[in-house]
Structure formats: structure tokens, C-alpha cells
Amino acid sequence: MRYRRAGLARGLASTAVLAALAAATTACGSGDSGTTADGKIELTVATFNEFGYEELFKEYEAAHPNIKITPRKVGQAAPHHQNLFTKLGAGSGLADIEAVEEGYLSQVMAKSGQFNDLKQIGPSDVREDRWLQWKTDAVTTKDDKLIGYGTDIGPLAMCYRKDLLEAANIKTDPESIKATFATWDSYFAAGEQYVKATGKPWFDSASQVFNAMHNQHKTGYYDRDDNLVIESNSDIKSTWDKVTKAVAQGQSAKLVAWSDEWETGFKNSAFATRTCPSWMLGVIESNAGPEHKGHWAVTGSFPGGGGNWGGSYLTVPKQSKHPKEAAELAGWLTAPQQQIKAFVAKGTFPSQTEALLSPELLNKTSDYFGGEKVGQLFSEQANKVAGAQYKGPKDGDIQDNVISPALLSVEQGGSPEDGWKQAVEGAKKAAK
Amino acid sequence: MTSELTVARGRGSQPRPPRRSDNDDSGGRAALGWRDRLTHLDVRFSPYLFIAPFFLLFAIVGLFPLLYTAYVSLFDWELGGDEQPFVGLENYVTLMTDSQFWNAMVNTLSIFVLSSGPQVVVAVLLAALLNTALRARTAWRMGVLLPYVASLVALTIIFANLFGPQYGLVNNLLELVGLDRIDWQAERWWSHVAIATMVNWRWTGYNALIVLAAMQAIPRDVYEAAVVDGASAARRFFSITLPMLRPTIIFVVVTSTIGGLQIFTEPKMFAPAGSSSGGSTNQYQTVVLYMYQSGFQSFDLGYASAMAWVLFVVIIAIAGINFLLTRRIASSGED
What we know:
Number of strands of chain B: 0
CATH topology of the largest domain in chain A: D-Maltodextrin-Binding Protein, domain 2
Distance between the termini of chain B: 27 Å
Structural class of chain B: mainly alpha
Strand content of chain A: 5-15%
Largest sheet of chain B: none
Number of strands of chain A: 7
Largest sheet of chain A: 7 strands, mixed
Number of helices of chain B: 16
Largest interface: A-B, 50 and 45 residues
Oligomer: heterodimer
CATH topology of the domain at 98-331 in chain B: MetI-like fold
CATH superfamily of the domain at 98-331 in chain B: MetI-like
Radius of gyration of chain B: 26 Å
CATH architecture of the largest domain in chain A: 3-Layer(aba) Sandwich
Order of helices and strands of chain A: HEHEHEHHHEHHHHHHEHEEHHHHHH
Number of domains of chain A: 2
Order of helices and strands of chain B: HHHHHHHHHHHHHHHH
Distance between the termini of chain A: 34 Å
Helix content of chain A: 40-55%
Helix content of chain B: over 70%
């Protein structure tokens, strides 16, 4: 029993504590009716990390005296979504507004019947052209229901070490950089040159490059009828071949993203480039530390066009006792003027077309990245995203638990053929 | 469990005698005052009330989940799915042909052997050392317990860093003494060694203290008689200490079997970025880790439940075999 108590229980502790907390808050806060003792309507809002909503809640409560907002905030995305799916399964216990991150969206879409159609219950002044087209498309079901309002996004750019590239005789003037990062082929060619010149890896991890490339394809692991097409979709195999070839050339630093060694890798200059969603700038700054200030640069020239990585939605589960009021609050929170305030507070990059043009955003610069006008840069990247790739029911599972380990096995010395076989078999098993 | 059962039996049996004397006045119950009847009821039922909380709690948090897991394992039970069709034993059939499951089973057994084996041997030796006339004995005895007191998650994170393939301290040391660096993550055998090291670090001292307690309960006069007969220290250890430690060693072996086969936190935290895959090709994924991945990442609760039950049966079987083996080995000196 020792290990089970210490092990499994501890592993699940976060979930259990969450569940207990959630149960406790619902129990004493609202009772069954979702109203407080003084007759106000209580709306619970479950988010993770930082959405930058704290001040906005106060503002909304002041404008709506009959509403009381109870935030439920979790540190990390993983336990938040585990809680979400567990409560969906249990049929009760969810907040009135549940945040959903893009990586988990496919699983939510597969259970879209348990969420309210915001086209039906949402306020009429919230129109779909508020958001970038692809942002809304991704959360629209096949039968044309809208189950979430977009909050933030993660438009992709490329981050690179200016000093390391120059040391390897790769020119870093704007024109040359544009050429170097024009396509994935030119990107890997520059990587080959870099490895030859320095003997050091070009990028941090194969899966981090693969995922960005994969998301640019029109069709992903599934077709629109939810058939797994990993074998027949030649784009996936050709991406696989390109990435594993680069691995064989020594271009990958073989650092698993978000591991301790990966974080150390930034400090040790273990790699020279990395795919860079808007939120990655802060991660690089804190991992690489002040001694690398000015070494890192970011460019809007992203191989193969644009892309998106991350960002969230606000949904209203059918479990909510006050769906109309919840939708109204979600609509207000995701309006351009509110998202700009959230951007100023916590740096979440807005998904609303109007917000992308606001001066607060466009004038944002980053000292760490050599004074680059990052607001304008990522605003342009957001508009470059071609469209939303359709994500099937197990898409996130396949990406994280099948493709990433398979790529890692190639980085650890396995053959690309074995890795591909592992990927295909794993995907079939996951999709079963 | 055994200790609790004995206690329950002991307490329950004590108040019984009065019942026999009550037998003959079943007809004259009206003659008894309410106070007597109350005493009668008290004597009869109170013991059960006193032990009831344990069994009630056990029924709620132990027995019910156990049985409900068996029930769930008969369905294609996806968490949050629209329907849960009954599939009979299909989950078990799939499991028996699932190569990932057998891979996880082999990993679990390998890590278990690498940890429990050395652990018990070292614990007994450590206990023998602690049982000698050391200076500051209590300090040493408390010292071996320190790894057990520290938080498991913190320990595992530190060990995972030590065993880091690129920037880990262990590899730097290996390089310093002229050996090759080892990819602790990539290579199956070495990943098992790394994980077993974490387990041993945490549990050896704990087991040593249990064995030490038993060692101190061995009567001194047995040793004195052996010394008089001219037995060497080694002979005394193998012919007196070990046989007389038998029940304790059985206890240690059985509990470490149960624990070792359910190992979860160590491989989970050993994986970079907390993945549940147990390495790129599942090279150190244990059964419980695979169960967790099926249940809470793929949300296939039916399959995970089937796995839980198979693991349960395997643990009982291996614990039983261990029990028989250790009884035989440790009894050789006594019979």
C-alpha cells in the first residue's frame, strides 16, 4: 500500500484537491440554484494560468449589480482540463464559464453536445466577425454550432540567436534572415550549414518543429469525416521525412520541451533557433536569463507562411444554471476593448481583429529581443494564418502521446522507419 | 491487515462470556430492568460499533471502488462519452494481446526486482550494523529514515535531474572518471536502474528500521549460548539472526512487492516534462503508469479498469509466491 498511497494518490492529488475545492465552493457558495444569499446570480469562471481577468471581473460586477462572479483559477492547463473532462463525465460540478485551451479543443469538440451553442444563447451584439476567421472556425462544429468565444491566440514567429548565427557565418541582416527562414527547406539547409560550421544543434527538439510544420497543412491527422488519415496524408509523411533527416544531420538538440534540461539548454546556448508563438518570448527570457539579453531575436519570416500555437476559448457548458448570463459575461470578456486590457495586464495576445489594430498592442516593444516591435510583428503573424486545420477527436492525444514520443525515439538513435511505424500504430490505437 | 484482524478478534471475544449466563433467563426478560437490558445490549454490540468506523470507511473508499472497477471494466467506458456500451470481457481480451501492456508488465517486474531485491538485503545488513554498539546510535538510526521523511515528488525531481542525459551530475561524474556517458532516458536497462535507485534510496532505511526492531526482540541468551559454543559472528548472523527475523522479512518482502508492482510516481516524474508515456518507446512505462495514461489521457476508463484488475491479481499471485519462498528460505536454520 505504501507506494499507492504515496504514488498514485500524489499523482492524482492535484485533481482530487481540485475536485474537493470545486465541490466545496459550489456547496457553500451557491447551493443548487446558483444564486447567493442576497439574491444575486452567481457566475463561476474557471480559468488556468493567467487570463488577466481579475480587474475585469470587478468592472463587470460594478456595472451589473445583480451578478456575483466567483473565479476558479488553476495554475496549469493540464489539471484544469483533466478536471473539465472528469466533470463533463460526471455530469455536474463545472463552472458556468469554462476556459478551453486550443490543444484540448479537439477533445471538447468531440463532446460538443455538452456545451451551449453560443449562437443561440449568446448576446446578439456578439458577431462572429469580432474574431479572426480561423479562430472562430476552429470552435464551430460541423452542424454549425459555436461553442466558444475566442480569448487569446499564439501566432507563430521564429526566434533565433543572432550572435550564434553570425558566428557560423549566417548573415542576420533583415533581407538575409527573410531568405533563410523563407521555407522549411531553406530553414533546414541553413541548419545543415550551422551544424557543419559549429558542430552544435540548430533547433531544440524535433517535435517542436514538426508540430509547427504539421499545423500548416490543410488536412491533419483526421479528415473532416473523422477518419484517421495519417497513412494516406502524404503531407504528414513528407514532414516526418524532412524532420528526421534534419535529426540525422545533428540539427536537433534532443531536449524535450518543458523539461528541466530544455530550460537549461536556453542558458547553455544548446540551440540557435526555436519556433516562437507570441507567449514564448516570456519563456525564452526567463529561461535564457539576463546574460543572453540582446542575443535572441525574433522575426516575422516564418517558414511556410504563418501558424498558430496556443490560445484559448471561453465555453458555457450545458451544466450551467444561468447559461444566458454566463454567455453574456463571456461575450463581454472577449470583446476587443476587454481583451486589450487583459493584454496590458498579463500579455495574452488578443484574437479579435479590432484588438489587433489597437495602439496599445502595436506599440508594444521588447527590450530583451533587441527592442523589436513585437506587438506589430505578432499582429501581422496573426493575419498570416491561412486557416484552421480540422482537428479530429483524438488529435491532441496523437500529437502529445504518439507523435512526440516517436520523434523522440528517432532523436535517441532509433531509425526513422521504426519511428514512423510506431507513430502510425500508436495513432491507430489512440483513434480506436 | 493481519494485525488489524487479530485485534478485532481479540476485542470481540473478550466481552462474550456474560452472554452464556444470560441464556437461561430468556423467559424472565420482563424481570430484568431496562438498565440490565441496556448493559446486555452494550456488551453485545458495542465492540462491533467500536470497530465499525474502520470497516465502514474501508467499504466506502476500499471495497466499493474495487467492485465498481470490476463493473466498469466490462464496459467501453469513455469518460464523458455519450454512451457506455457493455462489452463483456472484451477489454480483458484486448489487454492480453496488447503488446504495450506486456511491455509495461516486464518493465514493472524488472524495476521491482532491481529495487526490492537489493533493498531487502541491504536493509538487513544495515540493521545488523545499526544493532552494534555504535556511538550516537539514535542519530544513525534516525539518519537512515531521512530519505523516507522527504517528499517523494521532491526526491524524484532531484534524482531525475541527477540522471539527466545532457546536463545531469551522474553523467558528469562518469565522464570525470573516464567512463562513457549514459543516456538514462533512452536506454531501457539504464532507465530501470535509475528508477530503482530512487526507490531504493527512499525505502531501504525504512525497511532497515523495521528489521532492526525485530532484531532487538531476539533474546540475548540465544546469542550468549552460541558464543559459549564458539559460534563466529557470521555463524550467529546466519543461524540465529536470520531465522528469527523470518516473520519480519516476510512482512518486508510482501509489502515491498505490493508497493513495487504499483510503482507510479518515480517513472512519471522521471520522464522529462511529466509525460505518461514512460519514455519514447515506453521503455520505462510501468503498468500503473499505462493505466493512468489509458484512464486519464485517453479517457478509456473501461480499459484502465480491466488493467487495474489484472494488476491486482498479479500482485496477489506474486505476493503469495514471495510469501512461500521467503518462508522456505528463512526457515532453513530453524527446522
